[in-house]
Write a structure and sequence with these properties.
The complex is a heterodimer of chains A (about 230) and B (about 350). Chain A is mainly α and about 230 residues long. Chain A contains nine helices and two strands, in the order ααααααααββα. The longest helix of chain A has about 30 residues. Chain A is globular and about 60 Å long. Helices cover about 35% and strands about 20% of the residues of chain B. The chains are: A mainly alpha (about 230), B alpha+beta (about 350).
């Protein structure tokens, strides 16, 4: 029997670096492609999503025994939409600059499949503390992924990262990196690198005899990723 | 058996309620939470917006502004919000008007525009809010882009890629901003009774024609025009301009005609060359047509086809004018208005003796 703390750490690490969306498991693609034109926008989108994810999973987890099965999805959607509306208003009131840019995509958090996925696959069956750890892991994992994609696109597309110029003056930015095509290329390249790195790690472990044979340390199957939709 | 069937039905009924009641409760609770939250945060958002309006508009467009007054009693051009401000600087000098206007690029945006009626120039433009694509259309907020409108004469064509430098990959957004700025400012000044140098709006830049002051000669021609256009045409004192250059030579005629479109009156300004009474350019000053359908009459590809036409043309949609798809009534209104403008100039004998 593992201690409660180590269970929570396991829950946290799953989303944070084991099955992180969208880079490790191809989930939540819409915001990942749409708003990651700069590192800052990726960060802001990630943190907003984290807030909604953590809030909604904890609420659903608290009331998980009272939610009728037949209407669980609409109830999840209402809970998520409530939080999204609130974060939208908070951003507009206190961080107008960010709100101006992310605009429409904040509202689209409602249909972020990472959120509905974690509620359905985890929070609806586990106690609030574990759901909190799980959601926090996935949220922060989503945040660093989006920030990374944003940083790569910003560096190549504008020559800056977080608004700081990192390239020589002679550098001509590839504007195409700021278009949806650039988003796909960046995603593809990052996913390829990560898969390569994880396969190397898995082979090393194998040689040491640490891991069972036949485990695919790539993206894994849909069930392993906890996908529901 | 019958009893069993009945209880099964009853149970099914129960499960529906057992599912619906929690859903209804959750929705009601959500509504309550959101409204309570809104009641708390909305004043903050509103205050922030007002501050933004003052800071964005006054401080950055009119750095010398000392006080503002509301400009009342004018017909607001399309997209312009109430109120329009008069901005006064030191010694009560009118620095210009400032107003807020919603326009359409790739998606919608809201601008603060300052315009000086004395010089007929744009004083400055700021983007208040927009929903353009981050990294592309969203670059309409960048300083270099907005700076090119400051000090720009309303008589310029405001064309993306020509006198307005376009944003790479965002031509539609660029065009949206420049059209919104130029059309709203021209219409606003006109609504306040300022004589806009409309003639230069599309004068041949290549020939460098000097177009001077436009003088309103409306009342003098009213009777003649009314006869030519028919009684139902709206006739304001400023409906026909005789556009003269510095030496008083006739450069063009500018005629404003109002026709009924699908959604209400469509106000069309036609510039007519004195030679041969041919159309030089057509502009829709204001309209209330359906967005996405009838409002296509403001597009250049539609208005452009009138250029060069004259008294010999039919001006009929489907005959010599290509209408906007699904918006025949709106297109017809513009075509009729242009036809009447041409007829009016003809009736004046306004070809300046150069009739061919």
């Amino acid at each position: 029997m593992k201690g409660r703390l180590s269970v929570l750490i396991d829950d946290l690490s799953e989303g944070l670096w084991k099955k992180t969306p969208p880079l490790f498991t191809i989930l939540g693609m819409c915001p990942s492609l749409a708003v990651t034109t700069t590192a800052l926008y990726g960060l802001a989108m990630g943190l907003s999503t984290t807030f909604v994810l953590v809030g909604s999973t904890v609420i659903i987890s608290l009331f998980r025994h009272m939610i009728p099965r037949q209407v669980r999805i609409p109830i999840y959607a209402v809970a998520v939409a409530t939080l999204v509306t609130m974060i939208d208003m908070v951003l507009e009131g206190f961080l107008p600059g960010i709100h101006k840019v992310l605009g429409l995509f904040i509202a689209l958090i409602v249909v972020n499949c990472v959120i509905l996925g974690r509620i359905e696959a985890f929070a609806s069956q586990n106690p609030p503390d574990r759901s909190f750890a799980d959601a926090l892991g996935y949220g922060l994992g989503f945040t660093w992924s989006l920030t990374l994609i944003g940083a790569v696109r910003e560096l190549l597309g504008s020559g800056t990262v977080f608004g700081l110029r990192l390239t020589p003056a002679a550098f001509v930015p590839f504007s195409v990196m700021l278009t949806p095509a650039g988003a796909f290329w960046t995603m593809g390249a990052l996913v390829a690198l990560i898969t390569l790195w994880r396969q190397r790690g898995a082979k090393k472990e194998l040689r040491r005899g640490g891991l069972p044979v036949g485990v695919d340390y790539g993206a894994g199957t849909a069930e392993e990723r906890g996908e529901t939709a | 058996m019958a009893l069993q069937a009945k209880t099964a039905t009853a149970r099914r009924g129960n499960t529906i309620w057992a599912a619906l009641i929690p859903l209804a409760l959750v929705s009601a609770l959500s509504g309550f939470i959101v409204s309570a939250f809104y009641a708390w945060i909305n004043p903050i958002i509103e205050t922030r917006r007002e501050q933004e309006v003052i800071e964005m508009g006054l401080r950055s467009i009119f750095p010398d502004a000392e006080r503002t007054a509301k400009l009342d009693g004018i017909a607001l051009p399309q997209g312009v919000e109430e109120p329009v401000y008069e901005v006064y600087g030191p010694r009560n000098a009118l620095l210009g008007y400032m107003y807020y206007v919603t326009g359409q690029g790739w998606s919608t945006f809201r601008l603060a525009v300052g315009v000086d009626p004395a010089t007929q120039q744009i004083v400055g433009v700021r983007v208040l809010e927009h929903q353009e694509t981050p990294g592309l259309g969203a670059r309409i907020t960048e300083d270099w882009f907005l700076a090119q409108f400051a000090g720009k004469a309303l008589s310029d064509p405001f064309r993306a890629g020509e006198d307005v430098q376009a944003i790479t990959g965002a031509t539609i957004s660029t065009r949206g901003v420049s059209q919104t700025v130029s059309q709203s400012a021209r219409s606003l000044l006109e609504a306040t009774g300022v004589k806009v140098e409309v003639a230069a709006a599309d004068s041949g830049a290549a020939s460098g024609t000097a177009v001077g002051t436009a003088r309103s000669q409306g009342p003098a021609y009213a009777a003649q025009i009314r006869k030519a256009l028919g009684e139902e045409v709206t006739m304001a004192p400023a409906d026909v301009w005789r556009v003269e250059d510095e030496d008083g030579r006739l450069v063009a005629w500018a005629v404003r005609v109002e026709e009924t479109g699908f959604g209400g009156p469509v106000s069309v300004l036609t510039l007519i060359d004195p030679a041969g009474a041919t159309v030089r350019s057509v502009e829709v000053l204001s309209h209330n047509e359906t967005p996405g359908l009838g409002d296509g009459i403001t597009q250049t590809h539609f208005l452009g086809q009138f250029t060069g036409r004259g008294p010999g043309d039919a001006f009929q949609v489907g005959v010599d004018i290509d209408g906007i798809t699904m918006a025949t009534q709106s297109s017809t209104a513009v075509a009729k208005a242009v036809k009447r403008a041409v007829e009016a100039v003809q009736a004046l004998g306004g070809t300046g003796g150069a009739r061919r």
